[in-house]
Amino acid sequence: MRPAIQSISRVALILSPAVGDSLLMMTIAHNLQKNRIAATVFGQHAHVLRDWFPDIDIQAELGEAHLAEQLHGFDTVIQMHSNRPFTGLDRLHPRVILLDHICRARSSESMADRLALFCRDELGLPNAEKNNGIVPPPELQHRKYPFRVAIHPTASTVDKRWLASRFIRLAVELRDQGFSPEFVVAPQERADWKHVEKLGITLPDLPSLDHVATWLFESGWFIGNDSGIGHLASSLQIPTISLFMRRGIARTWRPGWGIGRVLIGGAYLPTGRLRERYWKYLLSVSKVTQAFEQLRTNLA
């Protein structure tokens, strides 16, 4: 049964440990705030980015201890996945909304669009939009460095990662074309990528997600795996090229805010298992550079 907007007055949004999921869930927080419904967001990544969401109450992630007590003052609790970060939430609170059905829906819409529709159709919020409410600090200049290409060569799991050697070849080709490719990796990943500096490729030191956001906002372009950093770039209206292993995954989880293109490796392979295993070998550097050239042409 869909809750009526009149019966929702104070909402707790519990965010996933994933960056992309967190940014997507901020769409709900933004639409609640637009409709003057009090929403408190609990999440690690959103808390780091709290200065980028000035109109939303963002708190640090919740722990298992005293969870029911911490949720007691909210009339509604929303979590994207039934098992992340908490399982059994419905045993701790009388009204819990889980969004697994939206993630699994057979739809051509991206998750950003689906969550906007959820706000409109299931929460009954008028004029719902897929904007997640992110507001860059005023001292920053959007795409200040138009030739800087942010490249994200990692992802949360190995199967989502295009070949490291091809990311490096891509960066070298872009450098030779006059661009400034820079690799963005997490602090704990830097040691694995320091060698690219010997090729003249910059590896900026970005110690936290808010530093990444600042750097991305002033970059000209983004190329990377299926990852939360791609969602961050898209939400900041940086043109993106995202590399995915399967079309169905890309249909749901592609960055859905700014202009971008999605490339699928091995889309013609007959089974999902084969696509997941071989996509990274079948997606060529030339296909990515061609997509980048087309994206630039479209925006010229």
From TrEMBL:
GO terms for molecular function: ADP-heptose-lipopolysaccharide heptosyltransferase activity. It comes from the Bacteria. Keywords: Glycosyltransferase, Transferase. GO terms for biological process: lipopolysaccharide core region biosynthetic process. One of its GO terms (cellular component) is cytosol. The keyword Ligase does not apply. InterPro entries: Glyco_trans_9, LPS_LOS_Heptosyltrfase. PANTHER family: LIPOPOLYSACCHARIDE 1,2-N-ACETYLGLUCOSAMINETRANSFERASE-RELATED, TETRAACYLDISACCHARIDE 4'-KINASE-RELATED. This is Glycosyltransferase family 9 (Heptosyltransferase). It comes from Paraburkholderia susongensis.
